[in-house]
Design goal:
By secondary structure, the protein is mainly beta. About 15% of the residues lie in helices and about 50% in strands. The strands form four sheets. Strands 1, 3, 5, 6, 7, 10, 11, 13 and 16 form a nine-stranded mixed β-sheet that branches. Strands 12, 14, 15, 17, 18, 20, 23 and 24 form an eight-stranded mixed β-sheet that branches.
C-alpha cells in the first residue's frame, strides 16, 4: 500500500513538473523575431479548410533539450508525451531537426494561436503560428417555392454562412424573362409579371470550395387569354375542326356553346378534345345544322374570357375554262357576240332601205 501511494505521488509530481516546465517555457520563453536565426522557428500562418488536417511544424536543432506544443495556455504535447485529451491531435515527428504535430478534422474552435516552446542550454524560447480555419459556403435558409397573382410584390430570401463570408447572387433562369442578377441576400420584385415566373437560382460563393446553389420556383397566376380562335370552313359531309388556344395559370377550363346551348363531348357526330392550352371541336360529318356561330369560353379562378368562331360552308372552286385547240367553247358567250354584231349593222340596213324607196 505504501509503495502504491509512493508511485502515485511520483506520477503526480512528474505531471506537476512537466506542467511547470511547459508553463515556464511558455511564460518565460523569448519570442523569436522575424529573421532571427535562433531556434525554434515555426511555420507561417497556416490556413486550412474545415474538415481537413492541419500540420504545425517547428524547426529545431541539437541545442534544444526540451520541446512542447501549446494552444494558448493548454499543453498539447510535451516532448513525446501527449497532454491533450483530444484524439484528433497527434504527434508527427520529434527529431533533432523538427517537432511537428497534426490536428485532424479541423473545426472552427481550433482556430487561434499555437506556440512551439523549447528549452536550450541558454534559455527558453518560443515561436508562434496562427491557425486560420476556412469554411465552405453553405446556404442555411432560403425561401420556399411560392405562387402569387400577377401584379403582386414578392421578396425572396437566401441566407448563407462561411469563412470568409460568402457572396450571395440571385439569377433568373427562365429564358422568357428579362435576364437580371442581384448581389443581395433578399431579392425584391415589385408588380411581378407572368414573364417573371420560373426558376430563381441563389448561389453562395467564397472561393474555399464550389459554390452552394439552391433554387426557388416562382409561379405567377393570371387570368385566361385567348391567343388564337379562327373561323374555319368545312365542306358538307366532310370533317370540320374548330380550335381555341388560351394561356392561363392555373390552366383554364374550356366550354363550348352554339348560340345558348352548351356542347358536350360525346354528342352525336361531335368530339371535344381539351388540353392545358387549347380545346378542339371535331365534326366528323358536317351537316347544314352544324354551320353557324360558336363561342369558346376559357375560365380559371382569376377570371374568364371568350371568343366567337364561325364554322362556315366551304364550296368547291369552279374550274377555269380551257383555252386553245380542243377547248370547250361557251355557246352563250358566242350568241352574245353575234347579237352585238347585228346591232352594229342595223343602222346601215335602215339607211339602205330608205334610199331605195
Amino acid at each position: 500500500m505504501i509503495m502504491i501511494r509512493a508511485r502515485m505521488h511520483d506520477c503526480i509530481s512528474c505531471a506537476i513538473l512537466l506542467a511547470g516546465i511547459a508553463a515556464l517555457l511558455l511564460l518565460q520563453g523569448v519570442p523569436v523575431r522575424s529573421g532571427d536565426a535562433a531556434f525554434p522557428k515555426a511555420m507561417d500562418n497556416v490556413t486550412v479548410r474545415q474538415g481537413d488536417s492541419a500540420m504545425l511544424r517547428c524547426i529545431v536543432d541539437s541545442r534544444v533539450t526540451r520541446v512542447a506544443w501549446l494552444n494558448r495556455t493548454t499543453i498539447l504535447y510535451a516532448g513525446n508525451d501527449k497532454w491533450s485529451i483530444d484524439n484528433r491531435v497527434v504527434l508527427l515527428s520529434n527529431t533533432r531537426t523538427q517537432y511537428s504535430i497534426e490536428i485532424q478534422n479541423v473545426d472552427l474552435y481550433d482556430e487561434g494561436p499555437y506556440t512551439c516552446s523549447v528549452q536550450t542550454d541558454n534559455h527558453p524560447k518560443t515561436s508562434r503560428v496562427h491557425l486560420i480555419v476556412q469554411v465552405p459556403p453553405k446556404i442555411i435558409e432560403i425561401s420556399s417555392n411560392i405562387a402569387v397573382n400577377e401584379g403582386s410584390n414578392i421578396s425572396l430570401k437566401c441566407i448563407a454562412v462561411g469563412r470568409p463570408e460568402p457572396t450571395v447572387n440571385w439569377r433568373h433562369l427562365s429564358p422568357k424573362a428579362e435576364g437580371f442578377a442581384s448581389e443581395e441576400e433578399y431579392l425584391e420584385i415589385e408588380g411581378i409579371t407572368r414573364e417573371q415566373s420560373g426558376q430563381y437560382e441563389c448561389s453562395a460563393a467564397n472561393d474555399v470550395a464550389a459554390p452552394d446553389v439552391q433554387k426557388v420556383k416562382v409561379t405567377v397566376n393570371y387570368p385566361p387569354y385567348i391567343s388564337d380562335a379562327k373561323s374555319t370552313g368545312a365542306t358538307l359531309g366532310q370533317k370540320g375542326i374548330l380550335q381555341c388556344d388560351a394561356s392561363a395559370v392555373p390552366s383554364a377550363d374550356f366550354y363550348w356553346y352554339k348560340e345558348d346551348k352548351r356542347l358536350m363531348d360525346g354528342n352525336k357526330g361531335l368530339s371535344m378534345e381539351t388540353k392545358d392550352t387549347f380545346s378542339r371541336l371535331t365534326f366528323f360529318n358536317v351537316s347544314e345544322q352544324d354551320y353557324g356561330n360558336y363561342t369558346c369560353v376559357a375560365i380559371n379562378m382569376l377570371g374568364q374570357t371568350n371568343a366567337s368562331i364561325i364554322l362556315y360552308e366551304e364550296t368547291t372552286a369552279a374550274l377555269t375554262p380551257l383555252k386553245g385547240p380542243g377547248a370547250v367553247h361557251d355557246g352563250n358567250k358566242a350568241s352574245e357576240k353575234a347579237g352585238c354584231v347585228w346591232l352594229q349593222l342595223l343602222p346601215l340596213l335602215l339607211l339602205h332601205l330608205h334610199l331605195k324607196f
